[in-house]
Amino acid sequence: MASNVNPTVRRRRLGQELRRLREQRGMTAEEVADRLLVSQSKISRLENGRRSISQRDVRDLCEVYEVEDRRIVDSLMQMAKESRQQGWWHAFGDIPYSVYIGLETDAASLRVYEPQVVPGLLQTHPYAEAVVAGALPEATAADIERRVQVRLRRQDRIRDERSPLRLWAVLDESVLRREVGGKHTMAEQLEYLNEMSQRPHVTLQVMPFSMGAHPGVNGQYAILEFPDASDSTVIYLEGVTSDLYLEKANDVQKYSVMYEHLRAQALNPDQTREFIEKVAKEYARG
Predict the structure, then answer these.
(1) What is the DSSP string of 4-34?
(2) What are the DSSP E strand ranges found in the chain?
(3) Theoretical Cys-Cys bridge with 244: which of 79, 89, 153, 237, CB 3.0 to 4.6 Å?
């Protein structure tokens, strides 16, 4: 479940505030970098929340921006301190997508399109093991188990009765047809999908092959929205060696509209449950 202090979200909020202060002064990131004798890329990473921010960074930037209100400086310094704390996921070691986990942990809603496998938040343990092992053929058994445990821990957001994550997932039919872990694992996984879809905060839709080309053919993506209005919506695109996070209003608008088209073209939730049940029975019969 979300912790009281989420370092990923703290970095984002602090970065947004620092960008606002810079823009108020009418300065470019390049001008700030020249003043502090650092690279422009460092200023950009501090502002987009992808880099840990030290209290010294905050102090130096506040001096450049001529922030005179000590309360503002102290507040930003405290946010910098909190942004360097560790989230629950750090206990599992080096996780490549730790930035995403931090965002997901604090998100209020998540919309995802998945063309290949069941979303991690809805995977059973056997299915998750098979997915990780297949995706990382050179990983050790210990590495596979560590990643699976992180994936299962992430699912706390779905089971949180006080403030559950609102999940809307559109799955390509290939997700159901791709036999991961064997027929028994697939039958169990699909039954679990239907079980989870009964929860009021989880909505599933399947995009059938018969629909042909659709707005999701370019690949998987996720849209994360947050309870605090000051936190901008994030578009997440997963990569093999690096991930992409989009926050510009124009990008968010394009992906959001594309997702609305996906939802309109996919089977509705009731049709989806019937479709999943049909495929699950096919696996169960062997």
Answers:
(1) S--HHHHHHHHHHHHHHHHHHTT--HHHHHH
(2) 109-114, 166-172, 202-207, 221-225, 234-237, 244-246
(3) 237
